[in-house]
Amino acid sequence: MTTAIRTELDADGILLLTIDVPGQSMNVITPEVQADLAAAIERLKTDDAVKGAVLTSGKASGFMAGADLKGMGALFGGGAAPEGKSKMAALFDGVFTLNKLLRDLETCGKPVAAAVNGLALGGGLEFVLACHYRVIADNPKITLGLPEIMVGLFPGAGGTQRLPRLMGIQPALMYLLQGKNMSPQEALGFGVAQAVVPADQIIETAKAWVKANPNGGVQPWDAKSFKMPGGPATALNPAFAQMFVGGNAMTHVNAGDNMNAPRAILSAVYEGVQVPMDTAIRIESKYFAKVVADPQAGNMIRSLFVSKQAAEKGARRPKDVAPAPTKKVAMLGAGLMGAGIAMVSAQAGIEVVLLDTTQEAAEKGKQYTADRLAKKKMAADKAQAILDRIHPTTKYEDLAGCDLVIEAVFETREIKANVTKQTQAVLGPDVIFGSNTSTLPITGLAEAWDKPENFIGIHFFSPVEKMPLVEIIVGKKTGAAAIAKALDYVAQIRKTPIVVNDSRGFYTSRCFGTYVQEGLALLGEGTVPALIENVGKQMGMPVGPLAVNDEVGLDLSYKVGQQTKADLGDAYKPGPAEAVITKMYELGRQGRKNAKGFYVYPDGGKKHLWPELAATVAGGLAADQPSADEVKERLLYRQLVECARCFAEGVLETPQDGDLGAIFGWGFAPFTGGPFSHMDTVGIANVVVTLDRLAQRHGERFAPPQLLRDMAARGDSFYAMAAKKAA
Ligand code: NAD
Q1: Which residue of 161, 498, 542, 639 is 20 to 30 Å from 504, comparing CA positions?
Q2: 356 lines ligand 1 (CB under 6 A)
Q3: Distances from the Cα of 539 to the Cαs of 274, 530, 542, 545, in angstroms?
Q4: Where in the sequence of the chain do the CATH 3.90.226.10 domains occur?
């Protein structure tokens, strides 16, 4: 077995333990790390020549990033239990191993200090917390934290027990529940670290402490005199009870009761801080096993971590195309989107020629970057260097030398075709051309470029500099070189790509639209508007469907509807949302932009739902109101069935693209891991039953595609199919 922790005994009998996991740029907790640590603990306990230890990292990149999430897959769902053991008992044993190991470290009887050279997150910080003395390199960029909650987990190696005992229950809950990081100075202030010293002195400082404290191998919580910071942890202390009442309420508001981990953290801390550490870590592992046994954490980790990273590393990139990084991009259109795309490109070191119809418009597009950089804390010369990369112009000849084109002019076919041809006259059709259209099929737009294989959709979300997703759209004739170039560019600007095939609304706009439309359908039936909005948020969507539509603009929705009608001709079927949107359009209610939509926006006041809404669009509130569960089911399943159709029609090729696009593109409830993970978890047969029932009551828009029926008959799931295809 390879060594993951190097050992080195110095003349003072101090054992330097250097974690350096082979083949990894950053340390993660592997089975080898655990085995090596167990061996080191044994040596500390039994070898009289060893007086104490210093734990550090051999990686310049930092101390340790925590659990190897990719390697944790086998834990989720529990796997098969060994004979004579329940699944939960087996799971408990699995997750308790590391917890127990760190407890063994802190009770080995000899002083152990941590010398932290860089980031220590999750399990990495838990290693540090189990040491008796903690010294951190003085670098404000170092992050220390327990961010597990972000992927539906919580610290399961003592973190929920040691952090409250170090910093106090209330601040610890803030860090545990929000996954917030702290700087070395903050750690020092909270007693999480005892010293912050220049990076080249961490090991000698740690060693000096070990040498000076031969009896330092006892944690404060193992001493008789221990007092919980911030007051005793007993139900008799009113402040103690209050913290958890508050914590419960906060969790409820933030997670809408959708997430398992926050509840589990609160329980583990509440129960754990009232008992000695040996019992406390068992309590933590019990809750941890429960969280792991539920599919939620596995789904979240798969989408938010594993699939996201794989997508960013080029999972969908054609393998046989040489790397094609962009050096100079031709940005056509300097409006809202063009300006944002210019900004993220320039920030990535790419030269940008920013073209619009007037010099004034092009300059305004550049100003967008200047305004946003001014708000950031950035050195003036760095900001200037970014700005200097953006070259506003109205002249097509200035595009010469660009190796990628991105078009974001008005959403009109003729205008787009016109700028496409003018660009080709300068650059020729061998350059890759990407359109940021939000609705026009790519295959049609590609006709204006002589080599349609070099034409592709590069669909950004607004505001570009904040939204993490880019939807790459492959037209009928788009070739591998265009896909590779687009994905390399997305990697350069550090966003998450998905790759989909051409379709009206592509994937994200098409499926997201159904959430809004179902909200409008409910409204048209006379459902209480606040019920629709609140249920939308409770189910984990960032905003209610009516509020979103106000942001997008009700006039825009009307126009897109009219365009679709014109394009589809006889095939067009009006949906139940159409009457509502038409009515609002006729009334001149455009949404936030003219301060009147489904909401009213009083000057200087808080927006609120328009009191006349139900009376205007539905002739009043319906006497029979749906339950919150019924509203939720419709808002959720209307999205799910559209996602399934995208898969059935080949718009989506992988469930990973579908889940990432939903979470990062339109904020689909992240705790589900995305619509495809959610359908798999519910079970496809159950999804079909629900959809059939909804279709019968509310119409064909809920009818499940044949694909779902076939999958249900086979007992198949989206991810099982994807795994088979990949194998
Ligand atoms: P916008 O109106 O803010 O900007 C369009 C810009 O294109 C304007 O500055 C305009 O002067 C310029 N322009 C128009 N005709 C031109 C021509 N012939 N040559 C050069 N420049 C020309 O619009 P936007 O919101 O930035 O949208 C641009 C494109 O991006 C559209 O296709 C839109 O559908 C798409 N899109 C928009 C969003 C969004 O949220 N706004 C999201 C994704 C995609």
Answers
A1: 542
A2: yes
A3: 34, 14, 9, 12
A4: 5-293
In angstroms, rounded to a whole number, what is the distance separating the alpha carbons of residues 412 and 324?
Answer: 30
Under 8 Å between Cβ of 29 and 121: no
For residue 553, give the nearest of 586, 591, 504 by alpha carbon.
591
Q: Ligand 1 within 6 A of 423 CB? A: no
- For residues 502 and 475, is the Cβ–Cβ distance under 8 A? yes
Token look-up 């718009």 returns 651
Contacts of 522 (CB under 8 A, 6+ apart): 532, 626, 631, 634, 635
Q: Quick check: CB of 464 below 6 Å from ligand 1?
A: no
Mutation test residue for ligand 1: of 332, 363, 368, 409, the one with most atoms within 8 Å of CB:
409
CA distance 527 to 538: 17
Question: In the chain, which residues fall in CATH 1.10.1040.50?
Answer: 509-726
Which position among 252, 459, 678, 698 bears the catalytic label? 459
Query: Which residue has the CA at smallest separation from atom 3 of ligand 1?
Result: 335
Ligand 1: centre distance to CA 320 (Å) = 34
**pLDDT given at position 78:** 43
CATH number of this structure's domain 5-293? 3.90.226.10
CB atoms within 10 A of CB 603: 5
**For residue 335, what pLDDT is reported?**
95
Q: From the CB of 682, is ligand 1 less than 6 Å away? A: no
Residue ranges in the chain modelled with pLDDT below 50: 78
Contact by Cβ (8 Å): 111, 89? no
pTM metric for this prediction? 0.90
Mutation to probe ligand 1, out of 343, 353, 356 (largest number of atoms < 8 A from CB) = 356
Q: Is 337 in the pocket of ligand 1 (CB under 6 A)?
A: yes
Q: Is the CB of 409 under 6 A from ligand 1?
A: yes
Burial code (b: 16+ CB inside 10 Å, e: under 16) for 550-575 equals bebbbbbbbebbeeeeeeeeeeeeeb
Q: What long-range pairs does 636-640 form, CB within 8 A, spacing at least 24?
A: 636/539, 637/687, 637/690, 637/691, 637/694, 637/702, 638/514, 638/515, 638/517, 638/518, 638/701, 638/702, 639/511, 639/512, 639/514, 639/515, 639/518, 639/668, 639/675, 640/675, 640/678, 640/679, 640/687, 640/691
Measured in Å, residue 638 CA sits from the centre of ligand 1 at 30
Identify how many contiguous H helices and E strands the chain contains and give both numbers: 30, 19
- pLDDT given for residue 66 in this prediction: 85
- Specify the domain boundaries for CATH 3.40.50.720 within the chain: 328-501
Give, for ligand 1, the residue of 331, 332, 336, 358 to mutate: max count of ligand atoms closer than 8 Å to Cβ: 336
Give per-residue pLDDT as tens, 268-295.
999 999 999 999 999 999 999 999 989 9
Contacts 24+ apart (CB under 8 A), 360-367: 361/334, 361/335, 362/334, 362/392, 362/393, 362/394, 363/392, 364/334, 364/339, 365/331, 365/334, 365/335, 365/338, 365/339, 365/390, 365/392, 366/334, 366/339, 366/342, 366/390, 366/392
Q: How far is the CA of 565 from the centre of ligand 1 (A)?
A: 22
Q: Whose CA is nearest to atom 42 of ligand 1?
A: 461
Q: Is the CB of 412 under 6 A from ligand 1?
A: no
Whether 252 is a known active-site residue: answer no
Nearest Cα residue to atom 31 of ligand 1: 411
* Cβ(460) – ligand 1 distance below 6 Å: yes
User: Are the C-beta atoms of 442 and 457 separated by less than 8 Å?
Assistant: yes
CATH class of the domain defined by 509-726: mainly alpha
Neighbouring C-alpha atoms within 13 Å toward the C-beta of 669: 29
Q: Is the CB of 408 under 6 A from ligand 1?
A: yes
Work out which ligand 1 atom sits closest to the CA atom of 462.
40
**Which parts of 328-388 fold into alpha helices (H)?**
336-347, 359-375, 380-388
